[in-house]
UniProtKB/TrEMBL annotation:
This protein's name: beta-N-acetylhexosaminidase
Keyword Hydrolase annotated: yes
InterPro entries: Beta_hexosaminidase_sua/sub, CBM5/12, CBM_sf_5/12, GH, Glyco_hydro_20_cat, Hex-like_dom2, HEX_bac_N
Keyword set, alphabetical order: Glycosidase, Hydrolase, Signal
Gene Ontology biological process terms in this record: carbohydrate metabolic process; glycosaminoglycan metabolic process
Key word Hydrolase present: yes
Gene Ontology MF, one: beta-N-acetylhexosaminidase activity
Catalytic activity field: Hydrolysis of terminal non-reducing N-acetyl-D-hexosamine residues in N-acetyl-beta-D-hexosaminides
Signal peptide: 1-19
E.C. designation(s): 3.2.1.52
GO cellular component labels: extracellular region; membrane
Classification lineage: Bacteria, Bacillati, Actinomycetota, Actinomycetes, Pseudonocardiales
Active-site residues, record numbering mapped to chain: 328
Length: 516
């Protein structure tokens, strides 16, 4: 292994027996299986072509995405052409035929030899996942925004890979601090690298309303005008929101909009006096208190409002889910909470969407299509197990493991600590398939990493809290539990550093990780 590790620095192929040899063993999330093929390295050159499945515009788009990244750093032209039928040509092929059936609809097969690099999948999404792996088979400088010196060598390899959970998510709170379109796109690109396929946007909270609603315009013009700390806030027009949704779709990421209710609604209550039981609009809030606001459960106009919002946001949403929030409704009695959800749950169905909600939503009687998202710090939840007993699947975001806004330790300059400190190892060391009592792996839809932004202002702040914990969660969501191993994970994680440096990604240099 010692010799192989030295050889790995020059990206030479390792013998099959050397399972620990980089770079093949540096992939995050770790593939289901990856075998090195000795003496079969593949060199990218100025003559390399990218072939994509003939007749598939989607496969071609994945090829263009790959070419865009590799052209920038190699300076090679990397033209795209239709893959010939029959034997795959030299170069890189992205094919929608011949994949091992185990790849399913999100997985892929990658076979690289000195002659060719062949990715096979049953869907363009699968090819896109394979492209993320292919990026990690090249030196980190492949991510550079400027032309770098090669050699550009892909190790000989046979990889078969597919996810443990179909849903791998990240949440960004754009309400506490507003994050403009460019920042969200940047985050989308980061998520895609680690095979995250859902972006949950927390679009409204006490401190701000961030999505244009035509039938209630003051939500944004007034309710979106500030943020935590008193800054200017902001909001997405429908066109801007659609731009985010489309950009995410081009990275095979589904956007899940969240409008939090009946609590976390001060921005709406401040914008429209008639939504308050006392007909008086409260002031806008820029502090970080929680649990004090509630829509007026007894007023009919509340349901007109909620229905209008759900209808307009659902119309901007190609994905299947609408997130109703439902957390920390401490200003709403349990009886009122159930009354409210009983009226609102069917509105989501009428809008053609399935409900997701923070796990308190399990206090209401949910349809089996509804997904509670667990954010507690314990390992049991009656709201969740009741929903599971009625047929629901669950998203796991335990706050003391999965919350990206928790500090790493007491000296972390930003972040909160109410759920404890979360070092990289803490973020990695839990099993989503056996985490909550009464919730077997078959009832887990997947894992999601929420990033609340009370203390998060800049893209660098996002980088610092999300990296390297987000890739740890991504591996929990993707890789088989049988591969779970902190000691190999930390080495693979450390191998990501040159990529992040090339990308200008400002990660936290945890002392738990042997950074390259
Ligand atoms: C709890 S988690 C909240 C958020 C805060 C977060 C800060 C959840 C569903 N609600 O309103 O932003 O803690 O960590």
């Amino acid at each position: 292994v010692g010799v192989a590790l030295l050889a790995g620095a020059t990206t030479a192929a390792a013998p099959v027996a050397d399972a620990a040899t980089p770079p093949l063993q540096a992939i995050v999330p770790v593939p289901v299986s990856a075998q090195a093929v000795t003496g079969a390295d593949h060199a990218l050159t100025a003559n390399t072509k990218i072939y994509t499945q003939a007749g598939s515009a989607q496969a071609k788009a994945v090829g263009e995405y790959l070419a865009g990244i590799f052209r920038t750093s190699t300076g090679f032209p990397l033209p795209i052409a239709d893959a010939p039928s029959g034997t795959p040509a030299d170069g890189i092929s992205l094919l929608l035929s011949g994949a091992d059936t185990r790849v399913g609809d999100q997985g892929y097969q990658l076979n690289s030899t000195s002659a060719s690099v062949i990715l096979r999948a049953t869907t363009a999404q699968g090819l896109f996942g394979g492209v993320q792996t292919l990026r990690q088979l090249l030196p980190g400088k492949i991510e550079s925004p400027t032309v770098q010196q090669g050699p550009w060598t892909i190790p000989g390899a046979n990889i078969l890979d597919y996810p443990r959970f179909g849903y791998r998510g990240a949440m960004l709170d754009v309400a506490r601090h507003f994050h403009p379109v460019a920042t969200v796109k940047r985050y989308i690109d980061q998520l895609a690298q680690y095979k995250i396929n859902n972006l949950h946007l927390h679009l409204a909270d006490d401190q701000g309303w961030r999505i244009q609603i035509d039938s209630w315009p003051r939500l944004t013009t007034y309710g979106g005008s500030t943020q935590v700390g008193g800054g200017a806030g902001g909001y997405y027009t429908k066109a801007q929101y659609t731009e985010i949704v489309n950009y995410a779709a081009s990275r095979f990421i589904t956007v899940i909009p969240e409008i939090d209710m009946p609590g976390h609604t001060n921005a709406a209550l401040a914008s429209y006096a008639e939504l308050n039981c006392n007909n008086t609009a409260p002031p806008l809030r820029t502090d970080t208190a929680v649990g004090y606001s509630s829509l007026c459960i007894s007023k009919d106009i509340t349901y007109t409002f909620v229905n209008d919002v759900i209808r307009e946001v659902a119309a901007l949403t190609p994905g299947p889910y609408f997130h109703l929030g439902g957390d920390e409704a401490q200003a709403t009695s349990d009886a009122d909470y159930r009354t409210f959800m009983n009226r609102v749950l069917p509105m989501v169905a009428t809008a053609g969407k399935q409900v997701v909600g923070w796990h308190e939503i399990g206090k209401a009687t949910l349809p089996a299509t509804a997904t509670p998202q667990f954010w507690g710090t314990t390992t049991s939840s009656t709201e969740v197990s009741n929903a599971v007993a009625r047929g629901s699947k669950v998203i796991l975001s335990p706050a003391n493991k999965a919350y990206l806004d928790m500090k790493y330790n007491s000296s972390t300059p930003i972040g909160l600590s109410w759920a404890g400190y979360i070092e990289v190892q803490d973020a990695y060391n839990w099993n989503p398939g056996a985490y909550l009592s009464g919730v077997p792996e078959s009832a887990v839809r997947g894992v999601e990493s929420p990033l609340w932004t009370e203390t998060v202002v800049t893209p660098a702040n996002i980088d610092y809290l999300a990296f390297p914990r987000l890739p740890a969660h991504a591996e929990l969501g993707w890789s088989p539990w049988s591969t779970h191993d902190w000691n190999t994970f930390r080495v693979r994680l450390g191998a990501q550093a040159p990529r992040w440096q090339a990308q200008g990604l400002d990660y936290y240099k945890s002392s738990q990780v042997p950074w390259e």
